[in-house]
Design a protein that fits this description.
This protein is α+β, with helices and mostly antiparallel strands. About 35% of the residues lie in helices and about 15% in strands. The strands form four sheets. It has a five-stranded antiparallel beta sheet. Strands 3-14-15-12-11 form a five-stranded antiparallel beta sheet.
Length: about 700
């Protein structure tokens, strides 16, 4: 039970995606429905027509040599681009992939054990972790075991298929929280409580629109309760977050809606249900220890070779400029870790890489090989992170990838974070200096600007950055240099940039940059263009990005929510908690009945007798749907002492049959509706596959 290995790859779903691509290209599937399918498989629309970004999920950022070769082969063969991009969520993104090629790319990645499933859309995104998990002397436990347990539990879970909005999770192995749980929808932090070990759980954090620091929902939970706690927080998001106003649909807005105390109370209600249903859920077991009280390496990769807790071995950080890797570099790194028996390489939140288990005497040789690939050791000032911005993103406002190489953190090695819009994929609110792109109208013309942030740190004891002024993009380099000089001149001893910013008076940065903020009419022509662009600046209206996912079909979420309840129903029945089990069965009937009624223009009554009448009114030609609800309502009203295993078995089989009848009707009504994964598992109709399409590709070049 100690380790739970997630099943990342499912070839059948890739074949279904391939059929959906064919259907879309053949104009048999409309754009909205196909977008939802595409995002579920991690294929994201670009600014450029006809090509897509493929986002590869790497739980905890882990990669082995064959996987790096598979990514290199896909990049070289199918992408109309020369690099892949490491993201701040430890994913790898491949851009400029023609839509028709995406199924083949997914298939070939899958042969190497890589998945893109739920890397986009309204799902649990890639789960990130401290980049030193398993090797850091400070850690209480190697959280990769618990991370893998969470991935195994939530990937393809009905609860996770149509959330109101995306959901991001991090794992840290000690109280330092190098994975920056504060800025996540949910952060899991290993902690010590006297002689006991467990986890602190944070929730409701987020950056971008209205940054929000996470609150503590559980100061201490035992290892056995971690997955249950996580599910309760996600169920809270699924139940209460706004499904209509997309700008207000992240879980951080629930904290504002309920208040911190009210949020925790709602969470406890969900936790009681989860604990009852999943009381016998298997969970990962870690090897716990007190850890060593040494200096925390900080978010992202360490900035120099770092001694592991394994004697004589070191973590070797590799600086990857702007997180971009070419196919030859990927193959070269694969050869390196194979030749030196290093096992794996990891991506980090600062878009760099870490090598592990390097004997001290080999560090110089390893760096020589890394440098021959055009990479190298981190140097002071190069901790610069950038999102793709206007290079590929539909939401991009400014050219973050053009300005970022011009910026430098200086001798103090400040962390610079550059985002092309306010959504903040480069995490500007957690950098020492963070900026995001925006447009401001000045003297009748649109002038590109960067909104500045100072002194952010997402680790324990940190905080979201102080918001500064917005400066024209043409002056942002000067602005950053001026702030760096001010810090160098006024810092007290070894004072951190974080501490220095917080002892400055209100309005300090606005006054410091006053002449750069002000724009006279005659200066506008010089400032009205972005870095790398000689034309006048404009914000393209590309119909919005896809970060919020495609618009959801209500009946789809009804069936997936019912599937989640069905899992609880069966688990509770197995435990002979018949009264609680039948409440879940009632929820299934209500969810699906309401969804069907709304689908055909009826009303979603709460009372089952009223719902049965409404279904009879709007669907007179489908009497079994309404009569089923009425019959089930009578069964649900029976006294609890009359319930037994045999009677519930018959009732639940009848409900499952009725669920399939409702699904058949809904799919006939809406031929593009996809309920795969939402129906009673033993009875789901699965399309026969063309197994010749699953034949393995020709062997890749050896590493």
């Amino acid at each position: 039970m100690g380790e739970i290995v997630p099943k990342l790859v499912d070839f059948e779903e890739i074949e279904r995606f391939s059929e959906a691509v064919d259907g879309f290209l053949g104009q048999r599937i409309d754009n909205d429905r196909f977008t939802a399918t595409r995002l579920q498989q991690g294929v994201y629309g670009q600014r450029q027509d006809g090509v897509n970004m493929v986002r590869i999920k790497l739980p905890g950022g882990r990669l082995n040599a064959p996987q790096m070769v598979a990514i290199a082969d896909a990049l070289a063969t199918y992408a109309e681009h020369d690099v892949v991009h490491i993201t701040t969520r430890q994913d790898i993104q491949m851009h400029y992939v023609p839509l028709a090629s995406t199924p083949t790319v997914l298939r070939n990645l899958a042969y190497a054990g890589l998945t893109t499933r739920e890397a986009c859309g309204n799902t649990i995104r890639n789960v990130t972790a401290c980049p030193l998990a398993g090797v850091c002397p400070r850690e209480h436990v190697d959280v990769t075991r618990h991370l893998d347990g969470a991935v195994a539990h939530f990937l393809r879970n009905p609860l996770n298929q149509q959330l109101p909005r995306k959901f991001k999770i991090s794992f840290s192995g000690c109280e330092s929280d190098c994975a920056q749980g504060m800025m996540h929808d949910m952060g899991v932090v290993a902690v010590r409580n006297g002689t006991r070990f467990g986890f602190k759980v944070l929730a409701g954090g987020g950056l971008g629109h209205k940054p929000h620091e996470a609150i503590v929902v559980e100061p201490f939970v035992e290892e056995k309760d971690l997955l249950l706690t996580m599910e309760a927080v996600i169920a809270l998001h699924n139940r209460y977050s706004d499904r209509v106003k997309r700008a207000k649909s992240r879980i951080k807005f629930l904290v504002d809606k309920f208040g911190a105390q009210g949020f925790v109370e709602k969470y406890r209600e969900e936790l009681a249900r989860v604990k009852a249903a999943l009381a016998h859920k298997e969970y990962p077991h870690g090897d716990w220890n007190g850890g060593v009280d040494t200096e925390a390496p900080g978010p992202g990769a360490p900035r120099k070779p770092f001694a592991q807790k394994q004697s004589g071995l070191f973590v070797v950080p590799v600086s990857v400029p702007l997180g971009n890797l070419s196919a030859p570099q990927l193959r070269g790194l694969a050869r390196l870790i194979t030749a030196h028996h290093l096992g794996e390489i990891r991506t980090t939140q600062d878009q760099n890489l870490t090598l592990f288990n390097v004997p001290q005497q080999k560090i110089a040789a390893i760096y020589a090989e890394v440098e021959s690939l055009g990479l190298g050791a981190p140097r002071a000032g190069d901790d610069v992170v950038a999102c793709p911005g206007t290079s590929t993103c539909r939401l991009g406002i400014t050219s973050s990838t053009i300005v970022a190489p011009k910026l430098d953190g200086g001798s103090a090695d400040l962390r610079i974070r550059v985002s092309g819009c306010h959504n903040g994929c480069a995490q500007p609110e957690t950098g020492d200096i963070g900026i995001y792109g925006e447009g401001r109208r000045m003297h009748g013309k649109l002038v590109p600007h960067y909104q500045m942030y100072f002194g952010g740190n997402g680790m324990a004891g940190g905080a979201i950055a102080v918001k500064g002024p917005s400066v024209p993009t043409a002056r942002v380099e000067t602005a950053i240099e001026r702030v760096k000089r001010a810090y160098a001149d006024a810092r007290a001893g070894d004072e951190t940039f974080f501490a220095w910013t917080r002892r400055q008076p209100a309005g300090y940065f606005k006054e410091l940059l006053k002449d750069l903020i002000e724009v006279a009419a005659e200066e506008v022509p010089q400032l009205a263009h972005d870095h790398g662009d000689s034309g006048d600046f404009r914000v393209l209206q590309l119909g919005g990005g896809e970060c919020a996912g495609a618009s959801q079909v209500k009946i789809g979420s009804s069936f997936f929510d019912a599937a989640h309840e069905r899992g609880y129903r069966d688990a509770l029945k197995y435990q002979r908690k018949f009264g609680e089990s039948i409440k879940c069965a009632e929820a299934i009937v209500r969810l699906i009945g309401q969804g069907v009624a709304l689908l055909v223009g009826g009303k979603a009554a709460e009372n089952l007798s009223e719902l049965a009448a409404e279904l009879g009114r709007v669907l007179p030609l489908k009497p079994a749907l309404s009569s089923g609800v009425a019959q089930f309502a009578a069964e649900f009203a029976r006294p609890e002492d009359e319930l037994n295993d045999a009677s519930l078995t018959m009732l639940f089989e009848a409900i499952d049959t009725w669920t399939l009848q409702a699904a058949d009707f809904c799919v006939d009504f809406d031929r593009q509706l996809d309920l795969t994964g939402a129906l009673p598992r033993a009875k789901q109709a699965v399309k026969p596959l063309n197994f010749h399409r699953l034949a393995r590709p020709a062997e890749s070049a050896t590493v």
